Amino acid sequence: MNTxxxxxxFLRSSTALIALPFLESLGFRRFASAxxxxxxxxxxxxxxxxxxLTTETWFPDAHQPGAGYTLPKGLAPLERHKAGFTVVQGxxxxxxxxxxxxxxxxxxxxxxxVVPGKSFHNTISADQVAAAQFGRHTRFASxxxxxxxxxxxxxxxGLSLAWDQGGKPIGGHKNPVEAYxxxxxxxxxxxxxxxxxxxxxxxxxxxxxxxxxDLRRGLGKTDNEKLEEYFEGIRDIETRLSKDEQWLGVxxxxxxxxxxxxxxxxxxxxxxxYDILVAALQTDSTRVLTYRQPxxxxxxxxxxxxxxxxxxxxxxxxxxxxxxxxRRDIAQAQLLAGLLDKLKSTREADGTSLFDHVTVAFGTNxxxxxxxxxCPTLLAGGGAGLKLGQNLVLPKGTPLNNxxxxxxxxxxxxxxxxxxxxxxxxxxxx
Length: 430
What we know:
Layout: E1 10-12, E2 17-19, H1 28-34, E3 43-48, H2 55-58, E4 85-92, H3 126-134, E5 143-145, H4 176-184, H5 191-216, H6 221-246, H7 267-282, E6 288-292, H8 296-301, H9 308-311, H10 319-345, E7 358-363, E8 377-380, E9 391-399, H11 400-410
Parallel strand pairs: 3-6, 3-7, 4-9, 5-6
Antiparallel strand pairs: 1-2, 4-8, 7-8
Helix pairs in contact: 4-7, 5-6, 7-10
């Protein structure tokens, strides 16, 4: 063959693009001898909890810093993974005072009142900072998992934990069936028909942009600012169209798990969402995931009668509410332990585990009675090169965004700051 050879060739038809195996006659022997082994990619997972966590029994004793600490009641189910995660204490979002919005600002730390004349403002979330880089290599730049009733679960405004570059909410999949089909169900519409549909959408977009640019010339400052927000939305649509065109005709991977049954809720729902999360990473469908978890249905599945919001307002004399809060914590820790089991048992091509290349952030903006200081934060996995297995007690008021900056930089992202971060947390670095 006289034409230059790619490492992998493709068979093309009018309806599909299929990757061939590595064939010696197509030059694979030459490449195989010279190729440098490729390390598995880094991944990031953010698991957000609503209505906070129980202060008295979730945080390790602050007088036991380092590796020799005793796991508290709320984290006891994670004992077998103790060497694989670090609990970080002392973190806060100084600009966030939103006790009923446990997920809205968790990954941003934004001051919602900072813009004059606006009652709500947000900024880009940490996951989307990563998605802008990692998403170039996958079908989905990021995947957002969500719950059916975020308000009942203490999450506040938003469509998921994710917020785009303009501080606008990004939609999430509200149940396992929806998430599964998004990741693994192949398109039934013929490729040529999808190409035509994408072309029509681009044509409409071009017309809208042309009209908007003509309109801009006659507008004042305030209206131009509003129009700029409009253009941000248009640019987001352009990005999604480009992504759809890039993967047009490439079949979705076969799922390593079966199609979920509809109607699951609470504990079973979270467990299945975790399975789908692992499958998404295993198939390299995405490298960035967030999950805004349910609390209301979790309590119901645990046969807890206390209302979710009331549970978060316990006092030492309110035994029923305190018991509900602690049982919720234990169930969430059990589910997290199961997720870490799956990540450790899932093998990469080089024989290492998925756990070795992922960073899992588990936490929320708030704790008991919606307090916004000492945000509960647990970081697990080897993806960001963190120092694991410790109870890390930082000075009170350390920006939570310092943790996100440390994770982003440790994952290989060229990020100088995130939100109100003041630098990386050196004690977190291995």
